[in-house]
TrEMBL record:
Keyword Manganese: no
Membrane-topology annotation of the record: Multi-pass membrane protein
Transmembrane spans: 31-57
Lineage summary: Eukaryota, Metazoa, Chordata, Craniata, Vertebrata
Cross-referenced PANTHER family: HVA22-LIKE PROTEINS (PTHR12300), RECEPTOR EXPRESSION-ENHANCING PROTEIN 1 (PTHR12300:SF33)
Name assigned to this protein: Receptor expression-enhancing protein
């Protein structure tokens, strides 16, 4: 892993930098071919590691392959690119481009779809939380008596004027104090 990191990635990256800096087209093309082959190798390696890791000298063979790709004597990456990759990509370029466009469109549509669903879920959760919070608040307020409310205001010595109304439900429209008074007069009048 360490040798592949140094020889397969860092060394070529540094020489790619030098090729870009020097603006040498020949070196630039050489390193671009290497990176294309290395990307294909890394992709294939993801699957071959699962099935071939038991093979004797498997990891050593991978290191030797990367060295072969890099070697200026064997020009492995240029050879593989010119013999196999370029002809294959050239013949399949139209299909690959169409497939990529379709995948991009589908991913955009999926992103929009899941984004809308996510917003709907978030909005529903916010509304439910607000309604539960409002219900808890109204229940909490119902549990206070008028004396408690006046104490909270810091007005504990004063009495609550009869014009203050606290509604505990939509059916009850009379203030608590006046209802108690009317019940008292209604029962004494009988």
């Amino acid at each position: 892993l360490f040798s592949r990191l140094i020889f397969g990635t860092l060394y070529p990256a540094y020489y790619s930098y030098k090729a870009v800096k020097s603006k040498d087209i020949k070196e630039y093309v050489k390193w671009m071919m290497y990176w294309i082959i290395f990307a294909l190798f890394t992709t294939a390696e993801t699957f071959t590691d699962i099935f071939l890791c038991w093979f004797p000298f498997y990891y050593e063979l991978k290191i030797a392959f990367v060295a072969w790709l890099l070697s200026p004597y064997t020009k492995g990456s240029s050879l593989l690119y010119r013999k196999f990759v370029h002809p294959t990509l050239s013949s399949k370029e139209k299909e690959i481009d169409d497939c990529l466009v379709q995948a991009k469109d589908r991913s955009y549509d999926a992103l929009v779809h899941f984004g809308k669903r996510g917003l709907n879920v978030a909005a529903t959760a916010a509304v439910m939380a607000a309604s539960k919070g409002q219900g808890a608040l109204s229940e909490r307020l119902r549990s206070f008596s008028m004396q408690d409310l006046s104490t909270i205001r810091g007005d504990s010595s004063s009495t609550v004027p009869p014009s203050v109304t606290v509604r505990t439900s939509s059916k009850q429209s009379q203030p608590k104090t006046s209802r108690s008074a009317s019940e008292g007069t209604g029962s004494s009048g009988k």
